[in-house]
Design brief:
Elements: E1 3-4, H1 6-11, E2 17-20, H2 32-38, E3 44-46, H3 66-75, E4 84-87, H4 95-104, E5 112-115, H5 118-124, E6 150-151, H6 153-162, E7 166-169, H7 173-176, E8 196-197, H8 213-221, E9 231-234, H9 240-251, E10 259-260, H10 263-267
Parallel strand pairs: 1-5, 2-3, 2-4, 4-5, 6-10, 7-8, 7-9
């Protein structure tokens, strides 16, 4: 149950920890925290995707070290046994990256969920919102890394010949095929050799909910993907790759989300 719907959350607000992980592409000029201050679901805690990622690198959204993650989550007042619902108000469904981070750092996958449709659907259904900052009590969160759930550039390059896993890219087809420039400076256009493209947007309805499982399955079949196959997802900076990872987990319950963390921000870097 990686997804929960808005009606379920409304009935269970007092039984879960709620995280607002709204993040926007830089060119949108939107600020997730400012929007959270104006409007959020009751008791939601804000998760800053930029600040809570690794800071000693120029690459965006890289996984933090385990001790930093423990402090981040403890400061949010979240405990290991908590059931967590993550949502966003983003066009790139950024809540999925937060979902992936929790699973990577050892939170029980059965206790981490994304709100299907996010804040957009919640508001459209005229469900209540608030603008106060949620107070938290510091916990003592203990993390454990699932290092097999992340790939680095060396493993990606070795796999071009070994073909131990399939790489699927969540960016648009135009970016994947190198027909348009990358939105981040300093990156060449194109894609990883032998990878496949499945734009994350093709799995999302207009109301920001995921398409039906049957449609998800058909979309993955177009990438010549087979269930139970080793799959690694990539994108621009590891955010929308997590959207594909969550979608795939809906049709393959045994799948453990695996991401190339550096994604095209690392692989497409123009070396001077």
């Amino acid at each position: 149950m990686s997804l929960v719907n808005t009606n379920w959350l409304e009935k269970n607000l007092d039984k879960v920890k709620i995280i607002d992980c709204s993040w926007h592409m830089p060119q949108t000029k939107r600020n997730g925290f400012e929007e959270y201050q104006q409007l959020h679901i009751e008791n939601a805690i804000f998760f800053d995707l930029d600040k809570n990622s690794k800071t000693d690198t120029d690459l965006p959204h890289m996984l933090n070290d385990i001790r930093s993650w423990e402090k981040i989550v403890s400061d949010m007042g979240i405990k290991n046994e908590d059931q967590i619902i993550i949502y966003d108000n983003s066009d790139v469904i950024s809540s999925c990256r937060c979902w992936y981070n929790f699973i990577y750092f050892g939170h029980d996958p059965k206790l981490v969920h994304v709100l299907d449709g996010g804040l957009k659907k919640w508001i459209n259904e005229k469900k209540p919102t608030f603008n106060y900052l949620t107070k938290t009590t510091i916990s003592n969160y203990v993390a454990s890394e699932n290092k097999e759930l992340v790939k680095n550039i060396k493993q990606i390059n070795e796999n071009i010949d070994k073909n131990d896993f399939k790489v699927i890219d969540a960016r648009s087809r135009e970016r994947f095929e190198g027909k348009v420039p990358e939105p981040r400076k300093g990156l060449r256009s194109g894609s990883i050799k032998n990878s496949f493209c499945l734009p994350f947007s093709e799995l999302i309805n207009e109301d920001h909910t995921f398409v039906a499982k049957e449609e998800i399955l058909e979309k993955f079949k177009l990438t010549r993907c087979k269930l139970d196959e080793n799959i690694v997802f990539t994108c621009g900076s590891g955010v929308t790759a997590s959207v594909l990872a969550l979608a795939y987990s809906l049709i393959d319950i045994k799948y453990k989300p695996t991401i190339y963390d550096g994604s095209w921000s690392e692989y497409g870097e123009i070396k001077i």
